[in-house]
Amino acid sequence: MDVSEAIRNRRSVRKYQTRNIENDKLDRVLETGRLAPSARNLQEWRFVVVRDGSRRKRLAEAAKGQTFVGEAPVVIAACATVTDYVMTCGQLTYPIDLAIAVDHMTLKAVEEGLGTCWIGAFYEEEVKKVLSIPPEVRVVALLAIGYPDESPFPRPRKDMDEIVAFETW
Amino acid sequence: MDVSEAIRNRRSVRKYQTRNIENDKLDRVLETGRLAPSARNLQEWRFVVVRDGSRRKRLAEAAKGQTFVGEAPVVIAACATVTDYVMTCGQLTYPIDLAIAVDHMTLKAVEEGLGTCWIGAFYEEEVKKVLSIPPEVRVVALLAIGYPDESPFPRPRKDMDEIVAFETW
Lengths: 169, 169
What we know:
The structure is a homodimer of 169-residue chains. With 169 residues, chain A is an alpha+beta fold. The first copy, chain A, has a single domain, classed as 3-Layer(aba) Sandwich (NADH Oxidase), CATH 3.40.109.10. The first copy, chain A, is built from 7 helices and 5 strands, in the order H-H-E-H-H-E-H-E-H-E-H-E. A 4-stranded antiparallel beta sheet of chain A has the order 1-2-4-3, sandwiched between helices. In chain A, helix 1 packs across helix 5 (93-111) and helix 2 (23-34) runs antiparallel to helix 5 (93-111). Chain A starts with a helix and ends with a strand. The mean pLDDT of chain A is 98. The interface between A and B is large, with 81 and 81 residues. Strand 1 (45-50) of chain A pairs parallel with strand 5 of chain B.
C-alpha cells in the first residue's frame, strides 16, 4: 500500500474484532516506530505493549472510561524517557519525536490491515500506576490497535487554501 | 512505494539539486499534511511555502546559518494557530498535531522521490519576521524539501528490546 493510500485510509477506529494481532504484524508496526527520526537522534521513546485483558481494562478506566480501549487486543503506551531537551525554536523534542514514532505506527498499521486510535484523553498518573512506569517518564499517548470492526467516514478537513500560504502568512 | 519502504528510505537530506519541485508534486505532499489527524480534529496548522530565493536565504540565517536551508528549492514553515489546548494527559495538542502533519509530508516526499530535512534549530522570532507570521502563532518546524543530491547512511537506531517492553515498564 502506498503512503498516500495509507494516509487517506487511516481512521480513528473505536470498535475492534476480538481476533488477536499476530506477533509478526505487531513487530512490523513497532519497527516503524523504532526507525522514526528524532531530534539529535535521541530516540527518547519506549513503548509498553499491553495484551493482558485486566490491564487493558484498567487502562480503559484511566482513559476516562473509554471502553473500546479495553476491547482492543493491544494497547501501546508511548512513553518519553528524556523530557527536558528544548530545541532552539523553543519546542520540547519529546512530544514531537514521540508523535513521529506513533504516527509511523498508525500508518504501518493501516498497511497491515489493522486499525488504531490515538488517545490523549487519559490520566497519566493512573496509566503510570497500571504499567509501573517510573515517575520521571512521560506518557505521551495511548495507541489502541486491532482488526477494525467498523469503517468510519473520514472527518471533514479544512480546504487547502485555508491551511497553505505562499511566501508569507 | 509502501509505507515501510518510505519509512526505511527516509533520510535527513542536507544537500539538494538546484532543480525545482513541480507544483503537482508539492501539492501532493501538502495534501498529506492536510489529511493528518489532530486532537478533536482541530487542524491547528498552517503551512507557509517559501520558494523565493532571498527569503530562503533569510530563513537559513534564522536557522543558525544552516546554508542548506537556503539551497533547498522549497522551505515550508509549519505553524500552529491554536496553541493553548491541553489534553487530559497533560500534553499540548499543537506540537503533536503539527508533528503528525509534517511527518506525513516527509514520508510522502520520499514516495515522490524528494528529500526533506526537519529543522528545529531556528530562531522563531526571526522566522516570524521573515514570513510576517502573527505574534500568537507558533512555528513548530521548518521543513527543507527538494530533489536530494546526497544519499546519507541511516543513523544508528536502538535495538528493539531497548525500546519495547511487554505488559509493564
